[in-house]
Structure formats: C-alpha cells, structure tokens
Amino acid sequence: MLVYISSNKFMRAGYGERLRGHLSQKATLQTVIDFGDLPVFDATTYPCILVLTRSVPAGEHDVHTLTVDTMEVLIQLPAFVDKSSWKMPQSNYATQVWTLDQPNVLRLIKKITRTTNC
Where are the beta strands (DSSP E) in 37-77? Predict the structure, then answer.
C-alpha cells in the first residue's frame, strides 16, 4: 500500500501522460483526492493524495474519488472521504487527462459534447 502526496499537475499536463499510463496499468488505485488550489501547505502546490497498491487493477475496479474545496475538511478528512467520495471506474484513470468530476457531471459533459458535434 502506498499513500502518496503529490502535485495534481501530472493529472492534466502532457508531461504526466506516461505516469498516468503507468499508474492505470500497474497500480490499483484505491483513493484519489484532489485539493485543487487550496493552500494546504505554505507554498502553492496544488496537492493531491493517491492511495494505491502495486497490483494490476481488476477489470471493474472502482476508485474512491474526491475533490476538496474547503480547508475545514482537513480536520476530518477520513470521515469526509467515507461520506462524500464517489466511485469512478479505474478505467477512467488511463493515459488521457484525469477528470475528477462526479459521474453525473461527466455524463452531462459527454451529452453536451455529442449534441454540439452533430
């Protein structure tokens, strides 16, 4: 089990493509928490937390996903993750940009995209 605090930039930047691909194929993601631009540390770091195991993910594995937008959550982070995270198929975490929006938001975006491409 590995719990890793990192900048979230690798989730979207081109330079993170190989890391995203490696994590999606060689690790089973348990939890992905994105703190966006919250000042969790003294410096501007855009932190995220990844909880993973070094094993090939099962076909239909779900990842507990959460975005945090208030500092008050930090005091009770484990309880907040249990209560407020949503499940995303690990297949959503592949080489392409990682989007941590809730499934209903992703469905709406996909529907709007299909409609505007017609």
Answer: 47-53, 62-67
Integer angstrom CA distances of residue 70 from 20, 40, 79, 89, 118: 26, 10, 15, 25, 39
| Per-residue tokens: 17 | 């493509």
Whether the CB-CB separation of 20 and 63 falls below 8 Å is answered with no
Q: Identify any residues that bridge with 5 across adjacent strands, giving them in sequence order.
A: 49
| Exposed/middle/buried for residue 104 (C-beta within 10 Å: 0-12, 13-18, 19+) | exposed
pLDDT digits (tens, 9 = 90+) for 71-100: 999 899 999 999 999 999 999 999 999 989
> Would you give the distance in Å from CA 114 to the centre of its chain?
24
> Going by DSSP bridges, is the β-strand pair 62-67/28-34 parallel, antiparallel, or unpaired?
parallel
Lookup result for tokens 């992703």: 106
- Check: pTM over 0.90? Answer yes or no: no
